[in-house]
Here is the input.
Amino acid sequence: MQKHPDWRDTWPIYLRYTALAVAIVAVLAVVQVRFVYAVDGFPPQLFVIPSAVGLLFGIMLARIRVLASHTHVLRAFAAVTAGTREPEAEDDARAFHRLLEAAAGELDSDEIALFRQGDTGIERLAHWARDPQRPACLIEERAAALCTRGAEEPVPRSLPGQELELPAAGRVDLVRVPIDLPEPVVLAACRRGHRTRRPPDPVVRGFLGLCAEWLGMRLERRHQQAIIDEQRARHAREQRRAQTTLASICDGVLTVDTTGRIDYANPMAARLLHQPVEALTEQPLERVLQLEDQSTGRPPDPLTPGAGPPASEHGAGTDEQVLRRSDGSRLPVQLTVTPVQDTDGTARGHVIVLRDVSEVREALQHMAYYSSHDDLTGLINRRRFEQLVEEALHGARSDGRPHVLCYLDLDQFKLINDTRGHQAGDEMLRQIAGMLRSIMRPQDHLARLGGDEFGILMQDCDIEQGSQMAVGIASEIAGMRFFWEDNVFALSASLGVVPVDSESESTQQLLRHADTACYAAKDSGRNQVRVYTPQDVDLADRAGEMHWVSRIPQAIERGEFELWAQPVLALDDGPPAYQELLLRLRDEHGNPVPPGTFIPAAERYDLMCQLDRWVVETALEWMQDCQARGAELPVIGINISGTALNSEAFPEFLLERVRSAGIPGHRLCFEITETAAVGNLTRTARFMRELRGEGCLFALDDFGSGLSSFAYLKNLPVDFLKVDGSFVKDIEHDPIDLAMVRAIHDISGIVGLTTIAEHVENEHIGNHLRALGIPYGQGYGLAMPAPLAACTPSQTSAPAPVE
Here is the structure.
């Protein structure tokens, strides 16, 4: 409450009235004594009683005046505020203006205003002036001073106009409005100096105090109402946002009260439950949400502790259930139940989230299917087949039941796939898979392992029965005809069979043995069945070669291969022709591995391209190092395998690498075997001409071991002709070999080639070669191979290429 003035504020009224009353009573006493009683003298003690009476009478009059003023002010205040008790009954601005106008009339003020001092400056909340045309006393320039002075003390104050530099003499009454706000609010009333009628100052200040309290109450209510309105608006926005979000999400949301009745359902929940939203509200949850546990088939109650999904650390449980909808359909859903609690832990219900997982479950089923099946044929894939073989092996060890593993590879599939396109190859694989599936026993497993390879696991049969079944499968495939467009293709397959019994070591070993037996059958003439036995030496050798399929790439990566060099020397005095590079390998212990051990395996399993690339890269890097050191570049001979020569990518790689290396072409000599050159004469000639354009040399290696046709020599841009060592090593004792060497050398000279004899193992062979006029030789009798790093440029001077 505003602090109202007490007797200390009203003592001027009491003083004025008591003084006037005492004076009047004293004058009457003097008149009575002098004129009524005709007393000439007037003793002073006679004034005591009249003065006392006057004092009491003055006090009584002053009290009556103060009470009358207070009563009048209260009545006026009550009359003004009677119609504005409720904030909603009247607009604040109009109510403030009415109060200020009434207050100005009661206080005989020319101007009255309500100010608030905020962080951004002075704000005039309400204002009334008797003459709006005249300059106002309470203008904004003085508002700061008024607010500062009014905020110093909570009681109403009256200030002379001179303190505020008013344009005319007068007074300003101001009071701070009692309100729970951080900014001070001041009510100020101004009276110009020429106005005379004015209530007593205490009454003015009291009336101002009442107005200030009412204004403070009204402002505080408005402030509280603004806060409430803002909270309501924010709550409404949040509610609309929550409803929009819940209506937009793809999950169904139900809120359930403590009695188990639904009090909210979003549109997705209505769609999942196949009911309208209006029908779900106020319905019991057990009537609407009919679930079935997919593992037990029993209907769970998600709101019953222990019956629903396990709760997480946040109080929510998640599980997959089957939802039985009102139309009789069934829908797999993921159910999440979260209890709703107040801050004091009081339960308020639950939030249930339903997520349709039918598409996810279908996608997972598709993923699970395709992770274990082949897309093209629909058969199980290698991964699943290996799991089944592992299970069969475990069963054979535990209960002794025999099984048979069969590895099937189609013959000439690559021919059909390359000549007729992949669509033809895919259709052929589908037809073969369908035929195999039709003749398999129900307990057997058929898989496509990759490409044109199939795997068959024949369960509960011994090796003899499995071999017979494999022969029958080969016969069925051989009897098939594949029709594509206007062409008919005969089919065949090679099969490898291996027993699965208690003596089998592992699944991977069984697959390797079956693969080895299959390729042995293919090399034996195709359309064959080969049974793997540990006593089969040929299969054991092939199994050893299979080791190199992974060993060779590992050796390249680990840097276990080395380049050695063996010079091609002049048999008479003269510089060597070139240094032939030889590939060497060291095992894990650093011991040398004979080339005859890993080269056949590399040729059989298409690893020669990797080796040729490594040789070219390493040789050119060594030449670049020599060039960077300023040494004389040697002429090196690099062997190119038939596999690399017939590939599409290797010739382009070699040509690009030779051009980018910056090595003069006449310092590079590429050796190609006669068999590889004749195998694809057109491709080989084009390849040699492209490299001859860069200045490179060529040597035809192992001449005489193949077709020994001299006709194609005219079409190949060859510089050197290397006579196969099988003819050279026996020329001392075999006249036929000697005649062959002489004939090859004669033809070589006629076509303008330089002859090189291989396998010059001793001085006697060298003498025979000199007698024939052969200029160059190579062999242990002339020079042993040495590491390439040990070869010096002085050893590698080269003759000019033969034109």
About this structure: The first strand starts at residue 111 and ends at 118. Confidence is low (pLDDT under 50) at residues 1-5, 85-90, 305-317, 794-803.
